Amino acid sequence: MHNSPLLRVNNITKRFGGITAVNEITFEIKKGELLGVIGPNGSGKTTLANLITGFVKPTSGTITFHGKDIHSLPPHKRVLLGIARTFQMVKPFYQLAAYKNLIIPLCSQRVKDMEGGKYGERDDIALDLLEEVGFERDSRVAYKPASILPQGYLKRLELAKAIALFPDLIILDELFSGLSLAEVASIIPIIEKLRVQGKAIIMIEHRLKELFRIADRIIVLNFGEKIAEGNADEVMESKAVKNAYLGAETE
Amino acid sequence: MFLSTIVLGFINSIILALVALGFNLTFGISGVANFAYGGLYVFAGLTAWIFINIVKLPYIVSILLSIAATSLFGALIYRFILQRVRGIELSEVIATFGIGLAVLELFRYLGFYGFEYTLPVMFEGSINLFVVTVSIQRVMIVIIGIALAGGIWFFTHHTKIGLAFRGIAQDEYTALTLGIDSDFIATLSVAFGSTIAAISAVAIFPLGTISIEQGYVVLINALAVSIVGGLGSTGGLIIAAFIIGYLQTFTSAYIDTQWVMFVPPLIILAVLALKPSGLFGKQKELEERV
Amino acid sequence: MAKRKERIDRGIKVRSDDIFALSSWREMLYLSSPRVLPIVIILFLAIFLSPYWQRVLLSVAVFGILSLSWDMLNQTGMISLGQSLFFGIGAYFAGTMNHYFGWHPFLTIPFAMIAGGLFCTVILMPLVRLRGIYFSMTTLILPIFFERLIEAARIFGGTEGLTGLQSLPYSWLELYLPLLFLLIVLFGFRRFMASDYGLVLKGIHDNDQSVKSSGININIYKAFVLFMASAVGCFAGAFITHVYLFVGMPVFALDYSILPIASSVVGGVGTFAGPVLGAFILVPLSEILRQFGGLRIVFYGMFLVIFIVALPDGIFPYIQRKYQQFERWVEVK
Which residues contact A152 (CB under 8 A, 6 or more apart)? Predict the structure, then answer.
């Protein structure tokens, strides 16, 4: 059981009008694995995340999660099965206080079906979760409205919203973009902890250096196609990857 | 009977398309749903009437002045009201709705309704089209409708301002960085929408009397055609106008005239139940996410 | 020297936000008076007003209820331009049940709320997936559609309407029932929006995609809001049917659409208390303006535009701010 993949993406294709954003991509991920997805801008990384989470419906291909075909389910049903995501452009609820932002995922059926999802305890769970992602308990920052939080905290909040769903698979869409080195360094342990807990993680990233340090496996996309897959060293050595990133033939 | 219904249905469809064109143009470019559209329509009709009957200007001068006044009115609505609440959907809807209501009910209060409020036709007489006799005014409406639709297409595809219109429609922020003044373009879009309302008013009102109710009817028809065709889609608008127009004409010819007005809402309900973004909603992916 | 206005929470507000509220009469009074005072004022008015103004108070309550329904819809971005749809549907459900089956008003009113609420929810349900503008457009069309349908099909009495309906068993209910319902809905809606489910609704208004990715089916939430708002609107119509002992095409009139919007905008959109306050201002005002006839609607239209542009927050948030904060001018260094 432990060896069967948690998520399997099979020959998935998405066309927008005449443009093929994602073309026949196949990969899988196991529990406790951290898969990095890299590629130049416009290579279809975010579309891939949208396909897995259901915000975009595939033109063809299937997605299996926990052995169940999910490619036609709406986003919220996929969350109930255990897929959570963050958005590249953070999407907090700006009117609400930071910890109140987490009440909304905590209201989902998935959390209700778990232990501790009872009414009245949600505020406490939310504050605990925020502390986990680095909102200092002593400071009042968790009570501030999301609209005045700086980018670093918004990214953490975005991560906390995903964790609040107690997911089996987390998709992090460019979580590190726009963060300083120190902030990235403080978030990496949180991600590693999630992996130790047995969650599968897909990280879509531009910050290759940090990604290569923590990823188990990396797939490289270019023009919607998977051009390489392997561990960090293998990917770096791949000729196709060099071509894609440097844009020239390197003999 | 059948052939004449085809011809009359065609004219009716063009009238619907003409009426919806202005609403749709404004929405398609600046995203403003102009609920004052019916008010502007009646405003155009009544100013034309005032110019002809009270100021005693020649017909052609009167309608040109009326069209200009209505366009200016539209531009002023944007410049002094909508621009301040731009991007807040609630405020835009309520402000335009309030203006339309105030204009229509003010005219009603001032007593601008009754049989004497009619506009003259452009050309007297009627001609024989295949099997049915049609007044020249209706033929003129068809010509104006087709010319306007064609003109708008040419304008938005081949002139500088027209291209800026489409730029704003597609991505306001990108357009801003390219040096397109989005407020200016949006002012023009509301003004042009009003121009079309005014042109359709002076073309269509001669078929009957100018009544306040027409303001509401025109707004509802414009909304119906836009919903069925998909907001912002000109092709969808024309097809929707033909569907609604022909169904109305056939209902009137074969069932009963009083059922005609049920055609638009019933089609709306059917379209919303089956394909909520309208038949040809070009912003489908965006719209369906609320 | 440049100056700016500084707003600071009053000490008593800060203290009563916390547990200390239970330790002093002043704080308890501070917390309870905004809730108790309106109830006392309304009861006082209901008892001491002349019969004519009691009638006006009844209208205030009915329009207040419609405004609350409007504001609830607005919480999830559904901008209704046709509150008379809910009003009229409720009125006809109650009227026909009473006329054709002889149901008692105590039966027709709850029935109209539930059946009418479901009916409206089913019709409007396809719209919740679309942008708010579609909702506005369709709600503008539907009341006119139903009005003409009744006229053309000559159903439910056609243009004549149904007359001779049964009145409420006690005449004092005609005033106290809508006032009680208004207060229940007002405090109920405010409580609901403060709950976790209310937070989800605010989240939907803020960012629907984020709510979807939180594993929440937003359509179910919106359908629920739609049902609540429809049922509340239907109550107003069903109730008034048994006061006027008549139901006819005027229940779909523009007044029932425009006044709730105007009340909400004048009072303060999104606060629930604001729309009720707005109804308390506009309905008596419209009585005073009765001599101007059709000009009233012109005034409402102008009110809408002026408030939306110049005072978009409305009156209630202003009062709330004065109650909770004090202001002072400070020099900008």
Answer: A179, A180, A183
Q: From the CA atom positions of chain C, what is the Rg in Å?
A: 21
**Residue C253 domain flag:** yes
d(CA C264, CA C288): 20
pLDDT in tens, C54-93: 888 999 999 999 999 999 998 888 889 889 999 999 999 9
What share of chain C has pLDDT > 70, as a percent?
97
C113 is a domain residue? yes
pLDDT tens digit sequence for C112-169: 999 999 999 998 888 887 777 888 888 888 888 888 888 887 788 777 778 878 888 8
Burial of residue C4 (CB within 10 Å: 0-12, 13-18, 19+) is: exposed
CB A107 to CB C207 under 8 A?
no
Q: Is residue C188 part of a domain?
A: yes
| Nearest Cα residue in chain A from C204 | A93
Chain B residues with CB-CB distance to C210 below 8 A: none
- Give the relative orientation of helices B59-80 and B182-204 as an angle to the nearest 10 degrees: 150
Task: Determine whether the interchain pair C200/A107 forms a contact, defined as Cβ–Cβ distance below 8 Å.
Answer: yes
* Mutate which: C214, C217, C218, C224, vs A, most A CBs within 10 A: C214
Q: Are B16 and B225 in contact (CB under 8 A)?
A: yes
Question: Structural domains in chain B?
Answer: 2-287 (1.10.3470)
- Chains sharing 3 or more CB pairs under 8 A with chain C: A, B
B267 touches B244 (CB < 8 A): yes
DSSP string, B203-265: HHGGGS---HHHHHHHHHHHHHHHHHH-TT-HHHHHHHHHHHHHHHHHHHHHT-GGGGGGHHH
Name the CA dihedral angle for B179, B183, B186, B187, rounded to a multiple of 10 degrees: -130
Cα(C216)–Cα(C227) distance, integer angstroms = 18
Taking residues C260-282, report their average pLDDT.
89
The nearest alpha carbon in chain A to C207 belongs to: A93
Give the closest of B90, B223, B277 to C137, CB-based: B223
> Taking CB atoms and an 8 Å cutoff, what residues of chain A touch C207?
91-94
Compare CB distances from C148 to B89, B226, B261 and report the shortest one's residue. Answer: B261
* Percent of chain C at pLDDT exceeding 90: 24
Q: Determine, for residues B105 and C140 on separate chains, whether the beta-carbon distance falls below 8 Å.
A: no
Do the Cβ atoms of A221 and A38 come closer than 8 Å?
yes
CA B38 centroid distance within chain: 8
Which CATH code for domain A7-90+162-246? 3.40.50.300
| Facing residue for C141 by CB, picked from B91, B268, B277 | B268
Domain that holds residue C269: 56-331
- ipTM for the predicted complex: 0.82
Report pLDDT for A151.
Answer: 85
